[in-house]
C-alpha cells in the first residue's frame, strides 16, 4: 500500500514536471507557456499536448480546478522560476497517424510479430476511442496518441499507468473517463503484463518516438505500485532506530531505578 501511494505521488509530480518541460521545449513565449500551465491545472488537458491522469487527475478534479485563475497563474509563475531538471526539447512533434491492420487480418495471433501483435491488441482495445490511426476523436475528448507527450521520451511509467489504471477526471469543464485495463472491477478488458508490454511498445513505436522498449518486468513494476522508493527504506530505518532508542532509554531508566532502591 505504501509503495502504491508513493508511486501515485511520483506519478503526480512526474506528469506535472513532464508537462512543464515539454511545453518549455516547444513554446518560446513566456505568456503562452503560463497560459497553458493554467489551462492544464484548471482542466487537466491542453489539447494536442497533454492530459492529466492518475493522482494528477485527482489533484485537478479536487483542488486545482477549484482555484481562482489568479492562484493558478501564481503557480505557473512559480513553476517557471524552478530550473528544469532536463531539457529534452519538444515532445509534441513525434509520431504520425497510421496502422498495421492489414498485416493481422485473417492471421492467427501466434503468427504475428510483436509489432503486429501490438497493433492487433490496440485495434481490439483502444481503436474504438483513440482511432485506428491513433488520431483520437475530433474534439480530442479521447486524445491523439501521436504528437502527445505521453508517447515520447525515455520514461514510460505514465503510459503504462494510464493503461493499467485508466483515467478519471472531473472538472467544471466536464468529466473525462478512460477505463482501466488492469484487474479492476470496471476494467474494460483485463490484459496481462505481456499483452500490455506488447501494446505499449506498439504505441510508442507507431505513434511516439520509439526511444524506449517496454518489458513485462516494467509493466509488473507499475502494476505492483511503481518503482521501489528509497523513502520507504529510510522510514523503516528511522522507525527501527527509534525503536532501539526507546528500548535503550527504557533499559537505562529501569537500571537507574533499580540502583536507587535501598
Q: pLDDT under 50 segments (min length 5)?
A: 9-13, 21-31
- Helix vs. strand class: mainly alpha
Order of neighbouring strands in the sheet with most strands: 1-2
Task: Tell me the strand percentage band.
Answer: 5-15%
Descriptive account of the structure:
There is one protein chain. This protein has 262 residues and is mainly alpha-helical. It has 2 domains: 2-223, Cytochrome c-like domain (Cytochrome Bc1 Complex, Chain D, domain 2, Orthogonal Bundle); 234-262. The chain contains 10 helices and 4 strands; from the N terminus they run ααββαααααββααα. The protein has helices spanning 2-26, 30-43, 54-62, 69-81, 114-125, 127-130, 157-165, 193-206, 216-223, 230-260, and strands at 45-46, 50-51, 167-171, 174-178. Strands 1-2 form a two-stranded antiparallel sheet. Strands 3-4 form a two-stranded antiparallel ribbon. A hairpin with a 3-residue loop joins strand 1 and strand 2 (50-51). The protein is extended and about 95 Å long. The termini are far apart.
Describe the SSE topology:
Layout: H1 2-26, H2 30-43, E1 45-46, E2 50-51, H3 54-62, H4 69-81, H5 114-125, H6 127-130, H7 157-165, E3 167-171, E4 174-178, H8 193-206, H9 216-223, H10 230-260
Antiparallel strand pairs: 1-2, 3-4
Helix pairs in contact: 1-3, 2-4, 5-8, 7-9, 8-9
Q: Which features would summarize this protein structure in a list?
A:
two-stranded antiparallel sheet, two-stranded antiparallel ribbon, 5% strand, Cytochrome Bc1 Complex, Chain D, domain 2, mainly alpha, 2 domains, extended, single chain, 262 residues
Amino acid at each position: 500500500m505504501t509503495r502504491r501511494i508513493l508511486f501515485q505521488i511520483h506519478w503526480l509530480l512526474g506528469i506535472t514536471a513532464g508537462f512543464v518541460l515539454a511545453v518549455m521545449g516547444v513554446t518560446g513565449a513566456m505568456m503562452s507557456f503560463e497560459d497553458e500551465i493554467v489551462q492544464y491545472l484548471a482542466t487537466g488537458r491542453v489539447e494536442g499536448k497533454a492530459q492529466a491522469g492518475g493522482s494528477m487527475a485527482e489533484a485537478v478534479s479536487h483542488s486545482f480546478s477549484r482555484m481562482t485563475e489568479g492562484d493558478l497563474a501564481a503557480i505557473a509563475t512559480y513553476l517557471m522560476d524552478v530550473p528544469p531538471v532536463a531539457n529534452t526539447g519538444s515532445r509534441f512533434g513525434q509520431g504520425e497517424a497510421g496502422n498495421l491492420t492489414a498485416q493481422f487480418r485473417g492471421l492467427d495471433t501466434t503468427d504475428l510479430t510483436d509489432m503486429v501483435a501490438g497493433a492487433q491488441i490496440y485495434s481490439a482495445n483502444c481503436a474504438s476511442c483513440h482511432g485506428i490511426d491513433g488520431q483520437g476523436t475530433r474534439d480530442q475528448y479521447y486524445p491523439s496518441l501521436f504528437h502527445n507527450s505521453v508517447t515520447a521520451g525515455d520514461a514510460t511509467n505514465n503510459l503504462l499507468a494510464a493503461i493499467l489504471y485508466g483515467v478519471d477526471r472531473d472538472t467544471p469543464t466536464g468529466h473525462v473517463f478512460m477505463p482501466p485495463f488492469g484487474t479492476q472491477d470496471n476494467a474494460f478488458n483485463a490484459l496481462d503484463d505481456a499483452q500490455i508490454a506488447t501494446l505499449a511498445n506498439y504505441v510508442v513505436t507507431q505513434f511516439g518516438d520509439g526511444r524506449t522498449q517496454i518489458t513485462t518486468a516494467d509493466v509488473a513494476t507499475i502494476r505492483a505500485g511503481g518503482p521501489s522508493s528509497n523513502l520507504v527504506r529510510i522510514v523503516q530505518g528511522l522507525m527501527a532506530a527509534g525503536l532501539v532508542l526507546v528500548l535503550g532509554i527504557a533499559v537505562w531508566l529501569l537500571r537507574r531505578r533499580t540502583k536507587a532502591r535501598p
